[in-house]
Amino acid sequence: MSRKTGNVPEETRAALIKAATEEFAEYGFEKSSLRRICSRAEVTTGALYSSFANKNDLFESVVAPVMEQIFHVIETHFKGERASTGRELLDAQGEKNDIQAVMEILHYYFRHQDVCSILFHHREHPAVSRFFDDLIELLDEQGKHLAKLLGAGEQENPEEAFSEDMIHWFSHLQMDMIFYLIEHEMEEKQAEIQVRNMVRFLRGGLYALVQDGNSLKIYHQK
Question: Quick one: 48 and 64 in the same domain?
Fold first, then answer.
Protein backbone atom coordinates (compact mmCIF):
# COMPACT_ATOMS: atom_id res chain seq x y z
CA MET A 1 0.00 0.00 0.00
CA SER A 2 1.29 3.45 -0.90
CA ARG A 3 2.55 5.55 1.95
CA LYS A 4 0.98 8.85 2.85
CA THR A 5 2.66 11.57 0.87
CA GLY A 6 3.34 13.72 3.92
CA ASN A 7 5.26 16.79 2.80
CA VAL A 8 5.88 15.40 -0.69
CA PRO A 9 3.95 17.52 -3.24
CA GLU A 10 1.37 15.78 -5.38
CA GLU A 11 3.34 16.97 -8.41
CA THR A 12 6.32 14.92 -7.20
CA ARG A 13 4.21 11.79 -6.81
CA ALA A 14 2.73 12.32 -10.28
CA ALA A 15 6.22 12.77 -11.73
CA LEU A 16 7.35 9.52 -10.09
CA ILE A 17 4.39 7.58 -11.48
CA LYS A 18 5.01 9.01 -14.94
CA ALA A 19 8.71 8.15 -14.75
CA ALA A 20 7.93 4.67 -13.41
CA THR A 21 5.49 4.08 -16.27
CA GLU A 22 8.23 4.91 -18.77
CA GLU A 23 10.75 2.76 -16.89
CA PHE A 24 8.49 -0.31 -16.58
CA ALA A 25 7.45 0.01 -20.23
CA GLU A 26 11.08 0.12 -21.37
CA TYR A 27 12.78 -2.32 -19.00
CA GLY A 28 10.01 -4.40 -17.46
CA PHE A 29 9.52 -4.78 -13.73
CA GLU A 30 12.48 -7.03 -12.95
CA LYS A 31 15.10 -4.95 -14.79
CA SER A 32 13.72 -1.58 -13.82
CA SER A 33 15.70 0.64 -11.46
CA LEU A 34 14.37 2.93 -8.75
CA ARG A 35 17.48 5.05 -9.18
CA ARG A 36 16.70 5.55 -12.88
CA ILE A 37 13.08 6.30 -12.04
CA CYS A 38 14.17 9.02 -9.62
CA SER A 39 16.52 10.39 -12.24
CA ARG A 40 13.74 10.46 -14.84
CA ALA A 41 11.45 12.25 -12.39
CA GLU A 42 14.27 14.54 -11.21
CA VAL A 43 13.60 13.75 -7.56
CA THR A 44 15.58 12.17 -4.74
CA THR A 45 15.19 8.58 -3.57
CA GLY A 46 14.00 10.04 -0.28
CA ALA A 47 11.05 11.62 -2.06
CA LEU A 48 10.24 8.27 -3.67
CA TYR A 49 10.28 6.39 -0.37
CA SER A 50 8.11 9.06 1.20
CA SER A 51 5.34 8.07 -1.20
CA PHE A 52 5.99 4.40 -2.01
CA ALA A 53 7.14 1.58 0.22
CA ASN A 54 9.16 -0.18 -2.49
CA LYS A 55 9.25 -1.01 -6.20
CA ASN A 56 6.26 -3.33 -5.91
CA ASP A 57 4.22 -0.57 -4.32
CA LEU A 58 5.21 1.84 -7.09
CA PHE A 59 4.38 -0.74 -9.76
CA GLU A 60 0.93 -1.36 -8.29
CA SER A 61 0.29 2.39 -8.21
CA VAL A 62 1.16 2.58 -11.91
CA VAL A 63 -1.22 -0.19 -13.01
CA ALA A 64 -4.01 0.44 -10.47
CA PRO A 65 -5.98 2.87 -12.67
CA VAL A 66 -6.10 0.31 -15.49
CA MET A 67 -7.29 -2.46 -13.18
CA GLU A 68 -9.94 -0.19 -11.69
CA GLN A 69 -11.20 0.86 -15.11
CA ILE A 70 -11.45 -2.69 -16.44
CA PHE A 71 -13.29 -3.83 -13.31
CA HIS A 72 -15.64 -0.86 -13.54
CA VAL A 73 -16.54 -1.58 -17.18
CA ILE A 74 -17.16 -5.27 -16.55
CA GLU A 75 -19.13 -4.77 -13.33
CA THR A 76 -21.31 -2.11 -14.98
CA HIS A 77 -21.99 -4.42 -17.93
CA PHE A 78 -22.80 -7.34 -15.66
CA LYS A 79 -25.17 -5.21 -13.59
CA GLY A 80 -27.12 -4.51 -16.77
CA GLU A 81 -27.18 -8.20 -17.66
CA ARG A 82 -28.51 -9.15 -14.24
CA ALA A 83 -31.39 -6.73 -14.73
CA SER A 84 -32.33 -8.39 -18.04
CA THR A 85 -34.27 -11.50 -18.94
CA GLY A 86 -32.59 -14.49 -20.54
CA ARG A 87 -34.26 -13.81 -23.89
CA GLU A 88 -33.11 -10.17 -23.87
CA LEU A 89 -29.52 -11.31 -23.43
CA LEU A 90 -29.76 -13.39 -26.61
CA ASP A 91 -31.30 -10.77 -28.87
CA ALA A 92 -29.63 -8.08 -30.99
CA GLN A 93 -29.47 -5.57 -28.14
CA GLY A 94 -27.75 -8.15 -25.96
CA GLU A 95 -25.09 -8.60 -28.64
CA LYS A 96 -24.71 -4.83 -28.98
CA ASN A 97 -24.23 -4.47 -25.22
CA ASP A 98 -21.60 -7.23 -25.14
CA ILE A 99 -19.67 -5.66 -28.01
CA GLN A 100 -19.90 -2.21 -26.44
CA ALA A 101 -18.39 -3.44 -23.16
CA VAL A 102 -15.40 -5.04 -24.91
CA MET A 103 -15.02 -1.96 -27.13
CA GLU A 104 -14.87 0.24 -24.05
CA ILE A 105 -11.94 -1.77 -22.71
CA LEU A 106 -10.31 -1.79 -26.14
CA HIS A 107 -10.61 1.97 -26.59
CA TYR A 108 -9.25 2.56 -23.10
CA TYR A 109 -6.26 0.41 -24.05
CA PHE A 110 -5.54 2.46 -27.16
CA ARG A 111 -5.87 5.74 -25.21
CA HIS A 112 -3.55 4.52 -22.44
CA GLN A 113 -1.44 2.02 -24.33
CA ASP A 114 1.77 2.48 -22.35
CA VAL A 115 0.38 1.64 -18.92
CA CYS A 116 -2.09 -0.95 -20.26
CA SER A 117 0.78 -2.78 -21.95
CA ILE A 118 2.63 -2.86 -18.64
CA LEU A 119 -0.35 -4.57 -17.02
CA PHE A 120 -0.90 -7.14 -19.77
CA HIS A 121 2.82 -7.95 -20.13
CA HIS A 122 3.33 -8.54 -16.40
CA ARG A 123 0.75 -11.24 -15.77
CA GLU A 124 3.20 -13.14 -13.57
CA HIS A 125 3.54 -10.23 -11.15
CA PRO A 126 1.61 -11.12 -7.96
CA ALA A 127 -0.60 -8.02 -8.04
CA VAL A 128 -1.48 -8.52 -11.71
CA SER A 129 -1.98 -12.25 -11.27
CA ARG A 130 -4.41 -11.58 -8.40
CA PHE A 131 -6.24 -9.06 -10.55
CA PHE A 132 -6.81 -11.51 -13.39
CA ASP A 133 -7.77 -14.25 -10.92
CA ASP A 134 -10.35 -11.85 -9.47
CA LEU A 135 -11.63 -11.13 -12.98
CA ILE A 136 -12.03 -14.83 -13.70
CA GLU A 137 -13.92 -15.21 -10.43
CA LEU A 138 -16.16 -12.30 -11.41
CA LEU A 139 -16.78 -13.88 -14.83
CA ASP A 140 -17.52 -17.24 -13.19
CA GLU A 141 -20.10 -15.72 -10.86
CA GLN A 142 -21.77 -13.92 -13.74
CA GLY A 143 -21.69 -17.13 -15.78
CA LYS A 144 -23.54 -18.98 -13.02
CA HIS A 145 -26.15 -16.26 -12.90
CA LEU A 146 -26.61 -16.33 -16.67
CA ALA A 147 -26.85 -20.12 -16.62
CA LYS A 148 -29.90 -19.82 -14.37
CA LEU A 149 -31.48 -17.35 -16.79
CA LEU A 150 -30.63 -19.25 -19.95
CA GLY A 151 -30.91 -22.82 -18.73
CA ALA A 152 -34.66 -22.84 -19.20
CA GLY A 153 -34.33 -22.81 -23.01
CA GLU A 154 -34.38 -25.91 -25.22
CA GLN A 155 -31.63 -27.58 -23.20
CA GLU A 156 -32.75 -30.95 -21.79
CA ASN A 157 -29.93 -31.10 -19.26
CA PRO A 158 -28.94 -27.52 -18.32
CA GLU A 159 -26.88 -28.70 -15.33
CA GLU A 160 -24.64 -30.63 -17.70
CA ALA A 161 -24.46 -27.94 -20.38
CA PHE A 162 -23.77 -25.18 -17.84
CA SER A 163 -21.58 -27.07 -15.39
CA GLU A 164 -19.06 -25.18 -13.25
CA ASP A 165 -16.24 -26.48 -15.44
CA MET A 166 -18.01 -25.28 -18.58
CA ILE A 167 -18.69 -21.87 -17.08
CA HIS A 168 -15.07 -21.57 -15.92
CA TRP A 169 -13.79 -22.52 -19.38
CA PHE A 170 -16.07 -19.91 -20.94
CA SER A 171 -14.68 -17.31 -18.51
CA HIS A 172 -11.18 -18.08 -19.73
CA LEU A 173 -12.31 -17.80 -23.36
CA GLN A 174 -13.58 -14.29 -22.66
CA MET A 175 -10.33 -13.34 -20.95
CA ASP A 176 -8.25 -14.86 -23.74
CA MET A 177 -10.15 -12.72 -26.23
CA ILE A 178 -8.71 -9.59 -24.58
CA PHE A 179 -5.23 -11.12 -24.32
CA TYR A 180 -5.29 -12.00 -28.02
CA LEU A 181 -6.22 -8.47 -29.07
CA ILE A 182 -3.45 -6.95 -26.94
CA GLU A 183 -0.71 -9.44 -27.76
CA HIS A 184 -1.20 -9.25 -31.54
CA GLU A 185 -0.74 -5.46 -31.56
CA MET A 186 -3.48 -4.74 -34.08
CA GLU A 187 -4.41 -1.32 -35.38
CA GLU A 188 -7.44 0.04 -33.56
CA LYS A 189 -9.86 -0.28 -36.49
CA GLN A 190 -8.73 -3.84 -37.16
CA ALA A 191 -9.14 -4.68 -33.47
CA GLU A 192 -12.69 -3.28 -33.52
CA ILE A 193 -13.62 -5.61 -36.37
CA GLN A 194 -12.03 -8.50 -34.52
CA VAL A 195 -13.99 -7.68 -31.36
CA ARG A 196 -17.30 -7.86 -33.20
CA ASN A 197 -16.41 -11.21 -34.75
CA MET A 198 -15.07 -12.66 -31.50
CA VAL A 199 -18.09 -11.60 -29.46
CA ARG A 200 -20.47 -13.03 -32.07
CA PHE A 201 -18.50 -16.26 -32.12
CA LEU A 202 -18.64 -16.62 -28.32
CA ARG A 203 -22.32 -15.72 -28.22
CA GLY A 204 -22.97 -18.28 -30.96
CA GLY A 205 -21.47 -21.01 -28.80
CA LEU A 206 -23.53 -19.92 -25.82
CA TYR A 207 -26.68 -19.81 -27.94
CA ALA A 208 -25.95 -23.31 -29.24
CA LEU A 209 -25.82 -24.60 -25.67
CA VAL A 210 -29.14 -22.95 -24.86
CA GLN A 211 -30.69 -24.56 -27.96
CA ASP A 212 -29.13 -27.95 -27.15
CA GLY A 213 -27.05 -27.84 -30.32
CA ASN A 214 -30.06 -27.52 -32.62
CA SER A 215 -28.29 -25.59 -35.38
CA LEU A 216 -31.34 -25.53 -37.67
CA LYS A 217 -33.39 -23.80 -34.99
CA ILE A 218 -30.56 -21.35 -34.38
CA TYR A 219 -30.38 -20.62 -38.13
CA HIS A 220 -34.11 -20.07 -38.54
CA GLN A 221 -34.30 -17.77 -35.51
CA LYS A 222 -31.61 -15.47 -36.90
Answer: no
